[in-house]
């Protein structure tokens, strides 16, 4: 079963087990102004009535971002987020992005309502605990993380889909070939691989890795489908000040003052069934 189907199956179980707050608001940024917009303006947000927020990445391609800016978000107000979450299985990329955002909002609601203790951390490398003898694989070229690993002095192989990013330096290289991940004992992957359906293929090349970490603002989902596939850590963004966050994202400003980074480790995670049971016992 694909990871997409696994997520949809979990959301179906959630919606049949507990009552979910409806969607209160969806924010989608306006069309890109490449000279002025920051990377943060590539994200949208789905806010539920209880204040929990699921983040949406809207710049997979310029065309999708343009379509997103024209979206009538009022059609989703008052809708059960589980309905929108089903769109994660859509062949329409914009609907798929919104579907993952809805899954994230539901997941954040579950974490909060079940009082699951998130492990807050500022480790941008997803608790990989890098050492001198490691060889790191990175899925997606992210200059700040590349620079950080380069500073540590550890060999790095970056997997990309964009030909123009191919490059080789003394300490790291960018390649189009995911099979190179077989050479790495630790792998860092962004949540975009879940969104673009490449995660199952990527993980096939990571079977010998000691530790695999999936990170990113849109990795705010229930981690069960990834943990069953061998991922060790899922790291994302917790929004601890909803009002401030919505103000900052509208103004295309950094979210730091309204958020905290967290990681969920497989070894400390009880599973979705236990979280739902904890919620049910409180009702």
Q: Can you give a write-up of this model?
A:
- The protein has helices at residues 3-17, 62-69, 81-85, 93-113, 143-152, 192-195, 199-204, 224-227, 242-250, 272-282, and strands at residues 23-27, 43-48, 53-57, 119-120, 136-139, 156-159, 167-168, 172-175, 186-190, 211-215, 233-239, 259-265.
- It is α/β, with parallel strands linked by helices and 283 residues long.
- The chain has a domain at 3-120 and 217-282.
- It is globular, with a radius of gyration of 18 Å.
- The two termini are 33 Å apart.
Q: What is the topology?
A:
Layout: H1 3-17, E1 23-27, E2 43-48, E3 53-57, H2 62-69, H3 81-85, H4 93-113, E4 119-120, E5 136-139, H5 143-152, E6 156-159, E7 167-168, E8 172-175, E9 186-190, H6 192-195, H7 199-204, E10 211-215, H8 224-227, E11 233-239, H9 242-250, E12 259-265, H10 272-282
Parallel strand pairs: 5-6, 5-9, 6-8, 9-10, 10-11
Antiparallel strand pairs: 1-2, 2-3, 4-12, 7-8, 11-12
Task: Name some characteristics of this structure.
globular, single chain, 283 residues, 20% strand, 10 helices
């Amino acid at each position: 079963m694909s990871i997409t189907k696994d997520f949809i199956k979990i959301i179906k179980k959630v919606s049949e087990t507990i009552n979910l707050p409806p969607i209160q608001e969806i924010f989608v940024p306006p069309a890109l102004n490449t000279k002025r917009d920051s990377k943060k303006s590539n994200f949208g947000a789905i806010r539920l009535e209880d204040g929990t927020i699921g983040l949406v990445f809207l710049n997979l391609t310029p065309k999708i971002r343009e379509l997103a800016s024209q979206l009538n978000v009022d059609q989703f107000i008052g809708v059960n987020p589980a309905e929108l979450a089903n769109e994660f299985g859509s062949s329409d990329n914009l609907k798929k992005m919104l579907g993952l955002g809805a899954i994230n909002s539901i997941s954040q609601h579950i974490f909060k309502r079940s009082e699951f203790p998130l492990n807050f951390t500022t480790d941008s490398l997803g608790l990989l605990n890098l050492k001198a003898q490691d060889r790191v694989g990175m899925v997606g070229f992210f200059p700040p993380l590349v620079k950080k690993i380069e500073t540590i002095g550890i060999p790095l192989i970056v997997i990309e889909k964009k030909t123009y990013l191919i490059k080789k330096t003394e300490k790291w290289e960018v390649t189009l070939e995911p099979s190179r991940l077989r050479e790495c004992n630790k792998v860092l992957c962004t949540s975009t691989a879940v969104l673009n359906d490449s995660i199952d293929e990527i993980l096939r090349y990571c079977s010998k890795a000691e530790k695999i970490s999936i990170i990113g603002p849109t990795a705010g989902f229930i981690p069960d489908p990834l943990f069953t596939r061998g991922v060790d850590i899922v790291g994302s963004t917790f929004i601890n000040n909803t009002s401030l966050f919505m103000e900052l994202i509208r103004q295309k400003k950094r979210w730091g003052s309204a958020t905290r980074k967290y990681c969920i480790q497989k070894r400390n995670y009880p599973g979705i069934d236990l979280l739902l049971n904890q919620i049910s016992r409180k009702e």
